[in-house]
Amino acid sequence: MELLKVNKIKSKVSGNVDITGSKSETNRLLILQQLYPNLQIENVSNSDDSVLMKKALTSTSSEINIGHAGTAMRFLTSYFAVKENSEIVLTGSHRMKNRPIKILVDALISLGADIQYLEKEGFPPLKITGKKLTKDFVEIDGNVSSQYISSLLLMAPTLQNGLQLKFKGEITSVPYIKMTLSLLASLGIELSWDDDSISIKPKPIIEHKKVVVESDWSSASYYYSLVALSPNSEVKISSYKQNSLQGDSVLATIYENLGVETTFNEHTVTLKNTGNLNPSKLIDLNLIGAPDIAQTIVVTCFGLGISCFLTGLHTLKIKETDRLVALKNEIEKLGGEVEITNETLALKPSTQINENVSIATYDDHRMAMAFAPLATKVSIVIEEPNVVSKSYPTFWEDFHKVTL
Ligand SMILES: O=C(O)C1=C[C@@H](OP(=O)(O)O)[C@@H](O)[C@H](O)C1
Ligand SMILES: C=C(OP(=O)(O)O)C(=O)O
């Protein structure tokens, strides 16, 4: 096993970091670029998930392995289902074969698609035979993953009659659906969202369009945590927009209560430790719209010795690992106390952090990156540190740049 010892940070945390493009925006735009070759994309993410997505879209092989990339698995399922004269097997890592996809496959089959399960019913790998789909209405459960909905929305304008999607139940991770719709709208695709249904009008071709991907806000979360845990620190990150398409930009508001001030200047964001900790406002933070920053927030609160109660976390169980269990295991090794249910996490305040604990990362990039900022308090060991490449390949270089 590879181990990375991260020594206790002695210097003041400061410096500038240029963060790669959002993997969520990139993976949507890569699909859209394949459907609309007039689309030009800049500041593309260098994450493994985006590299895998790009390779999959240009692959001539009959089997595509998308590793751990959830968005690639889900978005490509619809993409290949409507790609006429194609026949491929879409598979992934061991974990991917245990991440559910039935809701999306059922929706596509109800539209007329030809998709078969090759191993377990409801899970990858899938055999997809591309077909022209002529139906234009589908009902879908919105409570398990918004990626199923984004997947259908991305290919919807290429259907001859467009698509109307009706949701059953509560919708999870809504900002990601809004991101998909904003990107479609930016290409001139007509759409509407009324209560429980989204309609997308057909659009066979678009005018030439350049889209610059904003840097990744989920990746920015680790700098918010570092700054919150390090008195007098200041880090500048780029390139960001004040009106972001990414729901994780809510970090700026959340971390105000954790003593971090956010200032936008052109495309650079300055994160400054103000020393004004306001933990009382954190209790009952509902992260249903921003599940990927849950790990970061829990570790920041633990490092600050304060409690937190997070809700809206039901999707964490089906991500790269069961993130609720992973968080509980690792925080408890460090001496903290965590209680979890299927959708909530409660952290008790703690006065001490155990030193030199080896943090397991469970093939989950966010476990490695979320625990790294604890080095502001104690030396820590991160197991399999290279997992970070799933979303942020240069994480350790950038982390050392601002902490050495
Ligand atoms: O559409 C997207 O780009 C994503 C949606 C979210 O997933 P869920 O909708 O499954 O919560 C998020 O956790 C994931 O990292 C990226
Ligand atoms: C959940 C994540 O990704 P995905 O679902 O795309 O694998 C993530 O990046 O935290």
UniProtKB/TrEMBL annotation:
> Pfam families from the xrefs?
EPSP_synthase
Q: Where is the signal peptide?
A: none
Catalytic activity from the UniProt record:
3-phosphoshikimate + phosphoenolpyruvate = 5-O-(1-carboxyvinyl)-3-phosphoshikimate + phosphate
User: What is the name of the protein in this document?
Assistant: 3-phosphoshikimate 1-carboxyvinyltransferase
Enolpyruvate transferase domain spans which residues? 48-398
Give the family this protein belongs to, as stated in its UniProt record: Belongs to the EPSP synthase family.
Q: Which keywords belong to this entry?
A: Amino-acid biosynthesis, Aromatic amino acid biosynthesis, Transferase
Domain of life the protein comes from:
Bacteria
